[in-house]
Predict the 3D structure of the following.
Amino acid sequence: MPQIGEDNIRDTKSLLEEQKPYKTIFSNKDKLLSEFDNLEHNKKLNSFNYSNKSIKFDSLYHEKGLKYYKVDGAKSPKELISKIATKLKDKKLEKLLSIYQGLEKIDKKAYVISAMNIVYLLHAPRTQLDEETNLTTPFNQEHNKLLEYISDLTKKKKSFK
């Protein structure tokens, strides 16, 4: 990339700031940049909820009939995450984790690796949305057994170093 001197940067910046269309954007009177910044998140959120609700823009141009990801006949990701959250509270899972936690005559390294995989599979974020993470996080008070299991895993991992 060519070197751009400080004078050129300053001159370009002042030219952009003086031009009427850009002046409102740079002074944050126009919401174009913030709307663009939130566009991807809003599209993900609508796809997560299977919502056809249109997103309102003040400045950002978008084509009419903006479509979101949706598979006909399939449950929405929001419904699936709710089911996963319910399964994380299941007493059978708590019992299974207790049994696994109580294992003693096994290779510690193999135990730690498989336990880390179990923890990841139980609560890994799939959509990167807070709406999902709030339901599946082990720090959710409804998932005390999962947090206890993670704490036990941490102690066992530290003990075999």
